[in-house]
Amino acid sequence: MCGIAGYVGKDIVLPILIGALERLEYRGYDSAGVALIEDKKLIVEKRKGKIRELVKSLWGRNYGAKIGIGHTRWATHGKPTNENAHPHTDEKREFAVVHNGIIENYLELKEELLKEGVKFRSDTDTEVIAHLIARNYKGDLLEAVLDTVKKLKGAFAFAVITVHEPNRVVGVKNGSPLIVGIGEGENFLASDIPAILPYTKRIIVLDDGEIADITPQSVNVYNFNGEPISKDVMITPWDLVSAEKGGFKHFMLKEIYEQPKAVNDTIKGFLSTEDTIPFKLKDFRRVVIIACGTSYHAGLVGKYWIESFTGVPTEVVYASEFKYADIPISDKDLVIGISQSGETIDTKFALQFAKEKGAFTVGLVNVVGSAIDRESDFALYTHAGPEIGVAATKTFTAQLTVLYALAVRESGDRDNLIRLLEKVPSLMEITLNSSEEVEKVSDKYLKRKNFLYLGRYLNYPIALEGALKLKEISYIHAEGYPAGEMKHGPIALIDENMPTVLVAPQDRVYEKMLSNLEEILARKGTVVSVGLKGDKVLKEKSADFMEIPKVDEPITPFITVVPLQLFAYFIASKLGLDVDQPRNLAKTVTVE
Ligand code: F6R
Hints:
single chain, alpha/beta, Glutamine Phosphoribosylpyrophosphate, subunit 1, domain 1, Rossmann fold, 8-stranded antiparallel β-sheet, 7-stranded antiparallel β-sheet, 19 helices, globular, binds fructose -6-phosphate
């Protein structure tokens, strides 16, 4: 949901900002822009489209500016146009602002400004910030920002520069993420860590209600009353290599291939901190998992594990529904919020709501220092490294890893079950080695318009996840269903044009899956199946068979999902689509 970056320091700013925006582009990509200050003048360049459009428009221009802000947009207020692209400026073009999030009372503020005769150039909510700061400016940018934030409502982060103080960038965080990167003779602001990884690993994570005032030599943080705040400097474990494509055509493919490492690192991370977990699932009457999208699917798998290994009843609720559904929550409940980014606003609000009701809240996140990490009573981490592809892959299997390890920790057979988990990385490697087979299968399905994905028990959420991967990156309609539900409706859809992807390892529901297979064949349907190596029945009866190595029932979801990720990837990639940045989506969804 928009990426923002800011720099002030010793080096020429434009390439630094462009690089930072490219690493933030996963957050939004319908327009991009930069504002620089050179010779006390503001230079603003912004373009509809991806960052490459901005780069083209800047081609051949050699700006010497050493201060600037940049933005990559996921539109909320106002269509993606050059005018609505950020940065936005005041009327005299002395102040420039880039913003992420929503100013909820912007219409009211805009009315007031219009009455005062201010002329607006865009349809965005952001532009009011630039006008307000300009009006509040009396010689000190920080003071003007402090006066302005008091008027703003909503969840947002923004950065501002002014020609009057060409050595200073001020950044505000209130609900949307913002970090400060600390360099030598240079300092940075950014929505996320990968943006600044080439320059520094030293980071200050701002909390809501904080303002960072940066110059080349100083970083000062204040609350909204202007009182200084002392902040810890964190060293990020992420490195630049993990935030680059490293020879792969797309981040998504690289991240699919990184799964053995992500799972391995997450197992190690979990086991080394297991003793510090201050709760037992069994101490609660119920576990409630809240999440969105792929993280929700991980939660559904987690439910099966928690119930089967601990006996604690577990519910999984979409975070966006949780707050509004009158679900009874009390201090007898453990509420786990799963979020790769740790910033998804629905999940964050749902966790806050659960906390207010007295529940013990646990965040399961990939981004250390993210809002959900800091706001939960306790945080668990996936160690997947930065995930840049918009479609979540390695963070999904890393989330499964933590959920599994958390559940088996309270089972009588913990050690054996952990040994099983430790086999996952090598089983994934074997599965990835057959990616060419999946690619060949995908070639046959490029022109299909609809898919049904079926699975049961542990692999029902994997069917949902396989369908989500396909629809979000290939724009092909795909529906995931519990296989047993097929006969209650979806079976009507089956004909020779509608392929069904069947997730059918030899587990407790395998025979039932074979019955589904027969039902589909009887209606002239085409079956693409995911099954265990050596499964002759499945192989013979399916039009196409995607093989995974022999795997024990509890850990099947880790492995069955891999060919489905690859299948979606190859289809989208062969259709020439923008796999890493599918239309209309953003990696981190910070609006409700
Ligand atoms: C799907 C996808 C989204 C996210 C969802 C939650 O590939 O990436 O569905 O899973 O937006 O995001 P997080 O996990 O960051 O809360």
